[in-house]
Design brief:
CATH topology of the largest domain: Rossmann fold
CATH superfamily of the largest domain: Glycogen Phosphorylase B
Helix content: 40-55%
Strand order of the largest sheet: 9-8-7-10-12-14
Structural class: alpha/beta
Number of strands: 17
Shape: globular
Radius of gyration: 23 Å
Mean pLDDT: 95
Distance between the termini: 58 Å
CATH architecture of the largest domain: 3-Layer(aba) Sandwich
Low-confidence stretches: none
Length: 435
């Protein structure tokens, strides 16, 4: 009885989290909380913006979302020129290490800037700690990679506070370009995702007949990954199905948490689980499975989908899920599943996995080499249209999972520029190095 109650409580919480009516009600609550903050100090303004951003993320009506966005913009304008203690919002704001940053092009001269790429909002905002921020903005064109919804404090405030006429931004969802247009005229959207930077050479697919696993799910152990949906389906799937789960600890949830939830569904003996694996171990695991599945209803790009495709492992997602990499799922790469018939459809997907050719499609459309060319073209067009010069292209960017130049020779050639950023601007981009 206790097990049934725990299972029902978990499923009810999940249902409430994604129900449109509940989301709209909670959106109104967050909006009310934001309006209740009536102080005009910079810290209070930032908190009020955060509440409105939460309300915008939750809103299911585009018109309501647009009205909230207009309120956010008005508040952001009041922040400009006023000191804000970012350490209240980003715990390591004053840590000079920026691991999610990569140089893509060195500074060439006054009319040809270098190019810097920084992923995750908590990382780009560290630029605002630079004493010579104007010098940095004059020296480098900035490309940022959002981690999820644009409705967050940093995505709104950063363009208003960063002293550049243009900031290039990637996206997490197909609707993001529309949202970014409502944030700032400075933003130039490039339709690439966090999942657009996988290097196919790091994946060596195993012949399908030699793969030891039928199905793999690579997903952190956070609630939004919805492992319970897989366990509910697993009860009605073949007992000889070989399943591998790989994830990272998150929000206090570990592999043991996942095993406990599986026990509530009576399937704790039906899978292998590995936790906190390195990038290359995960890449190898993808190559050892016949199919992969992601059961999130809402998240950012979900790089695991792209990684699966480069392992020549077709991927399944839920139909209607707001997951950026769903745009990569097609007749060659995988399938969208109905959750109310998940056991049957997922079983059929695994059985038919041999008919897909995901790697061939991924190499043609979403490899780090193609994405780097798309980004390079956008940067070059803007530079030339702005009266600047363009004599040198960017290097190929990969994420493993931190961003870095894909070729070792490019990393070596850019080392002096990395050192200049550290010594002159006070930030250490990329892996932490000994002083």
């Amino acid at each position: 009885m206790l097990t049934q109650l725990r299972r029902r409580a978990l499923e009810t919480e999940d249902w409430l989290r994604y129900h449109p009516l509940v989301r709209d009600l909670y959106s109104q609550y967050e909006l009310w909380r934001g309006r209740a903050i009536d102080s005009e100090t910079p810290q209070a303004l930032a908190r009020a913006i955060q509440r409105r951003c939460a309300a915008a993320r939750l809103a299911t009506d585009p018109a309501a979302e647009a009205r909230i966005q207009a309120e956010i913009r008005r508040r952001v304008r009041a922040l400009v020129g006023r000191p804000l203690d970012w350490a209240e919002h980003i715990a390591d704001f004053h840590d000079p290490h920026v691991p999610r940053a990569a140089l893509l092009k060195p500074y060439v001269g006054p009319r040809e800037k270098g190019v810097v790429y920084i992923a995750f909002e908590s990382q780009w905002v560290k630029l605002l700690s630079i004493a010579d921020l104007r010098g940095f903005a004059d020296r480098y064109t900035l490309v940022v990679g959002p981690s999820g919804s644009p409705h967050n404090l940093i995505s709104y405030a950063f363009p208003a506070l960063y002293p550049a006429d243009a900031i290039f931004t990637l996206i997490s969802h197909p609707r993001d370009p529309e949202v970014f247009r409502g944030i700032s005229d400075k933003l130039i959207v490039v339709p690439l995702y966090a999942s657009s930077w996988v290097n196919p050479s790091l994946f060596t697919p195993v012949p399908r007949a030699e793969r030891p696993y039928d199905l793999i799910m690579v997903a952190c152990f956070g609630k939004f990954k919805r492992h319970q949906a897989l366990f509910a389906a697993l009860r009605d799937m073949p007992r000889d199905l070989k399943l591998l789960l790989i994830g990272q600890d998150q929000d206090g949830r570990t592999a043991e948490t996942i095993r406990e939830i599986a026990r509530w569904y009576g399937v704790a003996d039906r899978f292998d689980v590995r936790s906190n694996q390195g990038y290359h171990a995960v890449a190898q695991a993808f190559c050892q499975a016949r199919a992969s599945v992601i059961l999130s209803r809402r998240e950012g790009s979900c790089v695991a989908v792209a990684e699966s495709l480069f392992a020549d492992t077709p991927a399944a997602l839920l139909r209607g899920a707001a997951v950026g990499s769903q745009v990569f799922v097609n007749e060659q790469t995988g399938r969208l599943l109905a959750e109310d018939d998940l056991a049957r459809e997922l079983t059929a997907f695994v059985a038919e996995s041999g008919r897909y050719r995901p790697r061939a499609w991924a190499e043609e459309h979403i490899s780090c080499f193609r994405s780097s060319q798309v980004l390079n073209d956008a940067l070059r067009r803007h530079a030339l249209a702005s009266g600047q010069e363009w004599t040198r292209d960017i290097v190929t960017l990969q994420r493993t999972p931190n961003p870095e130049p894909a070729r070792p020779e490019d990393r070596q050639a850019l080392a002096p520029e990395y050192a200049l950023i550290r010594d002159h601007f006070g930030l250490q981009f990329g892996p932490r190095r000994a002083p």
